[in-house]
Every structure is written in C-alpha cells, then in structure tokens.
Predict the 3D structure of the following.
Amino acid sequence: MDPILTTNILNVVYEVSTLAVVVLGLAVVFGLLNVMNLAHGEFVMIGAYCAFFVQTQDLPFLAAVPLALLVCGFIGLVVERILVRPLYARPFDTLLATWGLSMLLREAVEAIYGRGFRSVATPLTGSVDVLGAGYPAYRLLLTAVSIALVAGLVWWFVQSATGRRIRAVVNNPELAGSVGIPVTALARNTFVFGCCLAALAGVMLAPLLPVNPTLGLDFILKSFFVLVVGGLGSLVGLISGAGVIGGVESVVSAVSDRTWGYSTVLVIAILFLWLRPNGLFPRT
Amino acid sequence: MASFLVHSAALVAALAVLPQLVGEFWAYTLALYFLYAIAAMGIGLCWGQAGILPLGQSMFFGLAAYLSGLSLIHFGDSWLLLVLLPASALAPGLLAYGIGVLVFRGRTLTGPFFAMITLALTLLAFQIANSWNDVTGGFNGLKNIPGLPGLSDFTDLYYISASALAVCVLGVAWLRRAPAGVLWRAVAENEQRVRFCGFAVQNVKAVVFGISGVLAGIGGALYAPQQNLVTPQLCGFILSADLVIWAAVGGRATLYGPVVGAVLIGILTADLRDEISWWEVILAAIFIVVVLYFRQGLMGFVEPRFERLWRRAAARDIESPARPGAPDDTGFALDDVHVRVDRVRILEGLDLAVDRPGVYCLIGPNGAGKTSCFNAMTGELPVRSGRIRILGRERTGAAADVLSRIGVGRKFQAPSLFPDLTVAENFNVGLWGGRARLADLVRMRSHRWSSAILREAQARFPFLAEEDRRAGDLSHGQRQILELVMVLIAEPRLILLDEPSAGLSQAESREVVEAIRWVGSRLQACTVIVEHDMTFVREIADRIFVLHQGRLLASGTVAEIQADERVRAVYVGASA
Amino acid sequence: MTGAANGEVFSFAGVTGGYGATTVVRGVHGAIAAGEACCVLGRNGVGKTTLMRLLTGHLLLRSGTVRLAGQPLDGLAPDERHRLGLVYCPQDRPVFDNLSVRDNLTLMGPIDAGRHAPLLAAFPVLEARMAQSSGTLSGGERKLLSFVRGIAEPGRLLLLDEPSEGVQQENVERMAGFLREAKAAGRALLVVEQNLAFARDIADRVIVMDRGEVVLAGSAAEIDEDTLAAHLQV
C-alpha cells in the first residue's frame, strides 16, 4: 500500500478513536442526566495540564493519570452537587451554568499557568513501521489504548449490572426509582465518571497537543457536533458521529489545510443542527 | 406616552452631561462600551423577551464592522457613505432574519439547538474572516480605517456612540411596551398558545432575531470608524460570550440590564484584567451565581418597580377590527384517519363527522385517542393516512396558526395561557390573533382594543375585569375560564375543548357549562368537548361520540349511549 | 414495627396533590393491614394513578401523610421507599423496554428459584421470551412482566396500578391466585382496577374515587355489586 495513504488512514483512525473517548463521557452523562456538560472539554484541558505538572515535578508520565483522575473526579463531584443537581429540571440553565463553569476553569488555569502554549514530552519516542509507512509509536499506542478503552467501556456497559441499571434509568427514570435503583447516587457517579474519562483523555493527548487553556473549547465543540451528527440513540450513532466529524476533519485537512478541515466540520454540524437535529441514529 | 417622553428626556440629558462628569478619557472608553451595549441589548430582546438565546451575536457585530470598514476605506470621502454605512448596519439584520426563518421553520424545540447553531455560525464567520486575506486582511484585519468624515476629537466620538445608544434604547423601550413586546414574552412563556392564537411563531421569532442583528450591526458599523481597526476577533467566540454574560449579569429581561452589564463589567474588566489575575475567574463565578440564583440580574432589582407603572392595563375604548371573514361552513369530518407515534398506534381508522352547530362530547377510556384526535386535527400529530376536513375544506396536517386564523379555537387540558403576563395581556394576545396587522403590533393603541364577547365574558365572570392581575396568580378554576375566554374572543366557528371542567368545583363547572352554551349559540359554532366527567357530559352534550382503541365505537344521544352494551363492556371490564 | 400494633402496614390520610398548580387528588385516606388487599376503583381521570404516584414518591404531596409500618415517608425518594418495602408496578410504561425480559427481572438481583420459578411456570409466555427485548412484548405481556417483577420482590407492601389492563382472562385469573397467596403470606396490597370482577375477586376493602376524592369506602363484603357498577358506569 502507498505509505502516504497508510499514514492518512492511521491518522483518521487516531482522530476518530481519541475523539470517541472524549465523546463517550459526554454522551453517557447526557443520556442519563439530560445534562449537556459544556465544561467537558475543560476536563480534558485539566487532564493535559496534569501531565504538564507531573513533568515539571520530574515524575514519570504515568503519574499524571492518578493525579488527573483525583483532580477532575473531585471537581466533578463538587460541580454535580452544587451546579448540576439543582438544575435537573432546567436543562437550558444547566447548559448556561456549565458554560459558565467552562469559562471559570479555563480562566483559572490561565491565571495559574498563563496563556502560553506548553509542551509535554512524549513518553514513547520513535516510530513504528506499518505497511511501509513510518508512524509515531506514541500515536499508535494511543490509538490502541483508545480503541481498547472504548471497547472495554462498551463491553462493561452491556455486561455489568451497573451498566444495565444506567440503561434502565435512561429508558424509564420513574420506574427505575420504583424498582430500587438509587437514581441520585447513580447520576452523581456517572457524572464524575464522565469527568474522569475526559481527564484521562487529556493526559493521553497532552504530548501531542499544544497544551493551553483554550484547548477544551475545541474538544467540547467537536464532541457536541459528534453527538449532533450521530444522534443520542446508540453507540452506533456515537461511533459514526465520531467517524464523520473526526474523519472529515482529518481527510479535508490532509488534502487542503486545517482551516478548511475545521470549516467543513462546522458546516456539517450546522446542517445537521438545522435539518436533522436528532442525528443519524435518533433516540426513540 | 407621557412617561415615555419623560424617560427619553432624562436619558438624553444624562448622556449629554456624562462627559463633563467623567472626563475625556473615560468618555472615549465609554463610547466603545456603548457600542457593545447596543449589541447586548439585542441579546436582551431575544433571550430576555422571546426566550431564544443567541450565542453568536459577534458574527453580526463583526460583519457590520467589516462592511463599514471596507466602505470607509474605499469610499471614505464619497456621498455613498450615507447609503453604505446604514446598509452595513442593516445587512446583519437581514442575515439574522434569514437565518431565523430557516431555523425556526416547522420546529418548536429550538432552545439549545438554536443557541448551538448560532455558536457554530460565529465560529465559521471567524474562520472566514481569518483566512479570506484578499477581502478581510486575514489575521491582521483591516487597518488604518478612516474615521467618520468631519469628526475629529474623542468627544465627537462619544456623542456619536451616545446618540446611537439613546436611539436604540428608546426604540427597544418602545418595542418592549408595544404589542410586539407582549407577543415576544408570550412566545417565551407558551409558544403553543401563541400559535393557537393565530400567530406564525416562526416569523415572530425570526423578526426578533433580525432586530437583534440590526442592533449588533449598528454597534459594529460604528466600531470600525471609531477604533480604526477591525480584526477577526470581532467575529469570535469570546466577544459573543462576553455579550451574553453582560446581558445576563446586567439583567436580560430588563431594558437597561444589557447596557449596565456591558458598560459596568466591560469597563471593570478593561481596568482590572491586568491588576487582578483572577478577575476573569471571579467574573465567571458571578455569571454562574446569576444563572443559578439571580436570573433577573442587577437591573432585575430596580426596573420591575418602574415597569409596574406602564404595564397597567389601558382602558378598552377602541372596538377591535372585525376578523377577516371566516368560512361559512361549520363542522369537520375525519375520514379513516391513522396516526402512529413511533410504533404505537394512536388512531386506527377514526371516522368522525359533525356538520352543524351544537355541542358534541368525545368520551372513551384512557388511551382511546380523544386528545390525539384533537392533535391530529390541529396539526400537532402527523397523520399517516386518511383525510381531515375542517370548516368546509380539506386541511389534513394544516398548522395550528393557519387553522386559528380561519376560525378554529382550542383549549387544552391543563390551562394553557401566559402565567407571567397580566390578564389584560392574555386577552390582548387573543384579540390581536387574526386581527392585528403588522402596523398594529407596534402601536400602543392596540392595547386598548375591546370586543363584544370580551365585555360579555367580563360581565359573566367578574374576576376577568381585574385585568392587572398576573394570570399565574389566578386560581386553577379561574385560569381554566381565562383560557376558555381567550379562545372565545377569537370568535371561532369550531371550538375544541379538552376537559374544560378538569379540576373545577361543581359551581365553577356549572358556570363553564353555561359559558359554553352561551358562546356556542352566540357564534353559531360547533363545540367539541373531550370530557371524563359524565355529569358534565349529560348536562351539555347534544350528541356523544365514544372512542375506543383509536376508533369510533358508538355515537348517539346520552340515553342511547347509556343503553349501549358495547360501551358498558368497555367501561366496566370485559368480564362484567 | 411501631405501627403494627393495630395491624396496619400502610396508611395514608389527607393525601392532596397534583401537577403544577392543578390539584388532582384531594384529602384521600385509607389504611391496609398485613394480609389484606384494598382496591381503588373509579372512572378514568378521577385521580387514581395520581394517588399512586403521590404514595410512591413520584409526585410531592401538597399536604397529608403517608406511613409505612408506622414510619412517615415524607420526602423519601422512590428508591428509598422501595428499600423500606414498598413495591410499585405502575400503569403506564410498566417495564424497561430497552432491556430483555430477563434483565427486567434481574436488575437488582439474580433469579430466585423459590420466588420466580412458580411465577414463570404459570406464565410460560414470559419464560419463552427471557432473552427477548421487552420492547417486543404486547401491552398485556408487559403488564404480566411488571406483575411478576413486583410480586417476586420481597417488600411487605405491593402497589399495583391496573395490573389486569390488556391481560388475557386466564392470566388475570392466575394473577388473582398469586395475589391471594401474597395475602396469605402476610403482604399488604393496594390495587387500582377498572376490571370489577377482578377487583371483587381479590379485594377485602374498597375505595371508590370521583373527582379526586373518596366517595365510597368500606369492606368489600358490605358493598354490593350494583352500587359499585353505578359508580363506574357511564
């Protein structure tokens, strides 16, 4: 196979699978709580800064994982209690409140670290030969970890008792309480879990991104567009949404430039929001 | 009217003396934030009045700034500026109206979707501004834009901004008081009821969005000559976000809230951003607190006290214009109508026909399809097959506002009105529907409309004459009657009532029976009532239709229905 | 078991509530002892389901009290009431239709041979569809699944909202049999019904509602069929 084609295909797979990890957290929270957490991207950003912090302390890269989970888990817990729970019945205000939260987190990080771009050293250097194309080893590892993570979470969601209960609450919240599912605690845990997932993605992506306070903005928009395109109905929707958004962006960026890639994604999102707001696979 | 003139004089005087009080430097700074304030007022109109949140107003601000910047660069000393500058301010309004028409068409659930569409559009606008080097100057923007001809010092710039602000504040103040403002607040509270009063809600929303586009446009068009520089950041996400925060913290539902928010927070931010590194964090926290606990914002503590003065109901001394001729036919017919929602069958070949004035009751067990029958008739549920004739013509799938204008009125099961509006404003929306022309919606005199039916209703139910009360403060029974009267003052020929006696006491229920009889005979209308309460049905029905599992099970007089074995079986259980 | 002195498992008084500003149920009262079944009867729209949602915590009481074994349930969420032994099978959307029949039954614990086996044997239609999504079941089969789920749970109080709606006659009779067994085992039942024969089959006490209020209440033996039919008839 043509090495350039191989590289591009790998790029698309990388883009789609890492995007899917970020969207998964957002989607589970939205499915269960009906809360579109516009600060989701900022948890990715904080995860990335955790990787940067660990680096400044001369600790191994992997130490960033527990740190990010701890920090974002704690913030998620507090946010769920004081910001999300009181607004369950006011979805529009939740949107605004989490949007305010996203500004708060962004500005807080900016106040600490400044606006400048930071870089995190890649823990795994060198490249691997894939069908004649040299591909960065860390990207390859990241793609594999992302796929494994998404697949593992999906398997857990389908198989575990907790996964079944989450699906039960999504389907019929009123009955869920009546059969004894502790809905409030489940909602809290799910929200915190979604934040942690975003944080984990942030740590993993940190070496490949220019780490800066506005990094979350890109992620929340792309994630939101994935949900808009894919619909909130199912995992198939999520994957196909991530495929369309991540795929289009990396393909158009490759043949033209990043501006065109980004603009194409925006146009697709606008068309979906306008003409097909329930996406390709709507929730029934 | 007098209060409006006093208000205008006070505002102009305050803006005129302000530079003397604060000095030249601050006057110049204020001049910039006045322009943002004008744009923020547009958000106040959309979000605080009509309930639609635009997250991309900077797109319109930026567009106007580029247009006016380009006009000044290329035609800086030509008379063409007299056309081009106003056009730069109006063009974003047209764009906004166009977007509104497309987005709101045939859709009711637009809340977050509308907000996200505008956000995505502004991001797209930023990309275009940032990369279309030939026209916009790309990342560096348009530089060295000449100022407005004939103006030189900072004070001149202040007076231009201040005049624009004064004109916009007074214009918005007028619109808020005019019928248009009442209609926007009504849309925010209960879109469905506005539609059933005969207004094409999508146009109402597109117009308010268009006006907000013009306001952002005025700000942007004046920005270019004032700052002499237009960069892509003017279309960016950050300015959009700032405008929303200013409107929210200042008070989105108030007239001066967005202005106070923009000027106060804008200037504080410009001043404190560099001194207090956590300033933006504090601001975000304030925004969250406002969203959670103080939705009315700063001016929400002040303005409502004044507002009560002019929201007092006007004397009704003008006879409302007659409604344009309704069709002569009465009645309706459903012919083999099927409705499904997802896979659930709601109506399964429903046949139902009524061809002369009278009172007809629809009864049947839960899930028989009674309310769905109304929903199919008024276009709320898509009809899969079958035909529906209403008032003499086939109107399968016709929209509620169209039906309302030809004479179909509908009352919902739970009282559907505008709880935060006064009783007078509730009546007015009912009166304006189908009667008011566009010009009537910006005239204050339309508040004084009256009609014979309204007067008779107020004589019959004295609480309806207390027009300054908030509709939400009425008792449940009073709200049921208020909604009924709102339906009736549109003088419909076909009246659909869904459980008009639900939650009423026996006495109230009897009054409703009388009111329905009175209007039915007075308007020569067909009245169709979904009702569970058999005492009520026995008292009022000329004829009963029994629905079961989406079909017509039986029809006849009260006595015939009571004797019907099939009806007994449905009601008492198969084995009884 | 503070309230067990007079044998009452469940009691409620002055129950008032509704949706938004609309009051649907006004001052409804009742009490059920262990081993007793109480049927709530009334025409459509008189507030029976609203009453159930008020008792189970899905709607907030505007006033009134609800006690389970003497303990007030004020402010407890539905899942907390469930933990205290209140089992509820709602009328509308009685099962999770995105889960399989088996998952509906095992959401909170595994299949119990002692409790589930006789039920599944009696309703082979469910046994045969254990792996199928319950969204594919008919309305009556869903009610049956909901009934099996509820009656297999160990709580001392069972609230059923129209369990027989859409269920085949022979299965309705089997349901009645299981409900009699539950009574014999000392459970308390509160059943909303439209099917008069089924109600008479199981009820020890009857509450008839109209316009959100109790219009007739008493022991099932004392109230004759014609009086009841008159209240339910068109």
